[in-house]
């Protein structure tokens, strides 16, 4: 479920983004074009007809009267100056120059005070202004209320007054519908928010994916999940066809609506998409849960492996599960690599990319640098983008320098690692891990495993020693198999009498396979001992 507070804050952020776009282009609306007729019963809004679009595009704005124009000119200059001061403040805060940034706040307040004084001159005679002049007064007053006074209700009333003016500039009236909708939605007045957003859709000549997302959110918060889903899918279609990026929070809303409608199978491709664009842990977790529910075990394993490669795992159970699944799938090398990483790493951060963009610069006094025409100078600046990483415990890159590795050297973890190394034919490394394991368990299984590995590497004497220790330590699951290996090792060194004793004990095993093999080895041992004895007699005879 999408958090209502987060969505409310998203509405406000949309407003703030809109204000930033308007700093120097007050009144200019930029939209992405696509025309699509839809059935409003499904939640999709009615769109403007081609005739209405042509009328919007062909209507010309009126001209301000001279006295109003002079006031408006000063207002625009003041807002432009305040915008530049805000940009300077942002750069100062970025450089952690708090005192200088606070000084900019005072300068901004002074400029806005002067701007508000100009607005007051128009406010005092607003009833005597003509319709167009009055609409522009409401426009700039709304902007000041919204951007500098945090007076959302006042701004909304200004915009509501603006759209009532018959001579208001069509584009400004159009953008006002959208802003009014956002202001109502940020106040959780969803009915009015939807009402004015539908007016925007019915009037605009260029719809956007973002507008559909805004409508989808409103339906979602009204628990109209089918309508929300239809609208979000339309937003996705427009985004795909226009080549615009479907933002991360848009995916969150779309996936949330699908979750409410129990469209689990349909969610999968969208989770796969969002993971490609925004590889974050929570999306891996959610998609992994879907794969499990849909019984797609191979995809689940592949997903966990991808999460490991992107260094997103941060729980011991995730390392253990992935390693065991890789081992079961016949990938012991990767299984061992996962466990070794978990035992030596902690959560950290590293530079995964760089984000470069043109940005304004400050002079020594903390003011924006401008060229001879008064236009702010821009320079290319790059910021490192940090992402999750597996780093060495105690390192500077660790999120917590005192954190212990994801995995401790417990019986379970050492067992998984040892078995993975053994299956990967990394015998020497496996022996080292089994030696550690032997110290934390009460049975002789690790010693028997060491003996088997040493035997395979032709270290016969060491194998015999390890297996004897394992049998002596006891509590073995299959002592008969251990005796068979020990007997074979003794046989290799032609210690036939000892081998016969061991095979004799093994022949008394309750397991038929062990019993049968032990009896065969007894016969073979007797035969080989006699052959060696005869060979030695011949050698003595010849000499």
UniProtKB/TrEMBL annotation:
InterPro entries: TPR-like_helical_dom_sf, TPR_rpt
Domain of life: Bacteria
Keywords from the UniProt entry: TPR repeat
Keyword rRNA processing in annotation: no
SMART domains the UniProt entry points to: TPR
TPR repeat segments: 209-242
Pfam family membership, one: TPR_8
Name of the molecule in the record: Tetratricopeptide repeat protein
Origin species: SAR86 cluster bacterium
Taxonomy of the source species: Bacteria, Pseudomonadati, Pseudomonadota, Gammaproteobacteria, SAR86 cluster
């Amino acid at each position: 479920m999408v958090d209502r507070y987060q969505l409310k804050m998203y509405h406000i952020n949309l407003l703030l983004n809109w204000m930033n776009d308007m700093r120097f282009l007050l009144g200019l609306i930029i939209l992405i074009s696509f025309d699509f007729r839809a059935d409003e019963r499904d939640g999709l809004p009615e769109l403007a007809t081609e005739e209405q679009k042509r009328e919007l595009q062909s209507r010309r704005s009126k001209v301000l009267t001279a006295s109003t124009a002079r006031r408006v000119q000063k207002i625009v200059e003041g807002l432009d100056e305040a915008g530049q001061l805000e940009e300077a403040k942002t750069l100062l805060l970025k450089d952690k120059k708090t005192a200088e940034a606070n000084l900019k706040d005072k300068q901004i307040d002074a400029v806005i005070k002067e701007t508000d004084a100009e607005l007051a001159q128009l406010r005092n005679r607003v009833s005597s202004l003509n319709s167009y002049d009055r609409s522009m007064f409401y426009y700039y007053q709304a902007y000041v209320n919204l951007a500098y006074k945090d007076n959302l209700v006042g701004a909304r009333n200004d915009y509501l007054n603006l759209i009532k003016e018959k001579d208001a500039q069509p584009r400004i009236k159009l953008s006002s519908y959208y802003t009014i909708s956002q202001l109502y939605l940020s106040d959780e007045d969803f009915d009015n928010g939807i009402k004015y957003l539908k007016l925007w859709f019915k009037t605009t000549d260029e719809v956007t994916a973002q507008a559909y997302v805004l409508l989808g959110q409103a339906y979602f918060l009204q628990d109209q999940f089918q309508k929300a889903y239809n609208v979000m899918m339309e937003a996705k279609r427009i985004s795909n066809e226009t080549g615009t990026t479907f933002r991360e929070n848009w995916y969150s809303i779309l996936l949330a609506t699908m979750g409410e409608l129990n469209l689990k199978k349909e969610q999968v491709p969208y989770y796969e998409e969002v993971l490609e664009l925004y590889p974050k842990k929570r999306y891996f977790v959610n998609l992994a849960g879907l794969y499990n529910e849909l019984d797609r075990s191979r995809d689940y394993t592949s997903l966990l492996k991808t999460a490991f490669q992107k260094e997103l795992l941060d729980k011991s159970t995730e390392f253990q599960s992935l390693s065991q699944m890789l081992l079961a799938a016949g990938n012991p090398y990767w299984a061992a690599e996962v466990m070794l990483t978990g035992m030596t790493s902690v959560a950290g951060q590293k530079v995964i990319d760089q984000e470069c963009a043109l940005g304004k610069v400050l002079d020594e006094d903390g003011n924006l640098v401008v060229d001879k025409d008064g236009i702010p100078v821009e320079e290319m600046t790059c910021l490192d983008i940090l992402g999750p990483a597996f780093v060495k415990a105690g390192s500077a890159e660790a999120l917590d320098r005192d954190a212990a590795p994801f995995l401790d050297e417990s019986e379970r973890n050492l067992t998984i690692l040892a078995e993975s190394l053994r299956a990967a034919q990394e015998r020497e490394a496996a022996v080292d891990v089994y030696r550690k394991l032997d110290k934390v368990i009460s049975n002789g299984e690790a010693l028997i495993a060491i003996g088997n590995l040493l035997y395979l590497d032709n270290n016969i004497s060491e194998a015999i020693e390890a297996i004897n220790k394992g049998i002596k330590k006891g509590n073995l699951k299959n002592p008969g198999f251990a005796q068979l290996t020990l007997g074979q090792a003794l046989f290799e060194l032609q210690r036939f009498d000892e081998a016969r004793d061991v095979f004799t004990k093994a022949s008394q095993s309750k397991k038929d396979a062990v019993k049968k093999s032990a009896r065969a080895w007894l016969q073979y041992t007797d035969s080989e001992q006699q052959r060696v004895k005869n060979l030695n007699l011949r050698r003595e005879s010849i000499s």
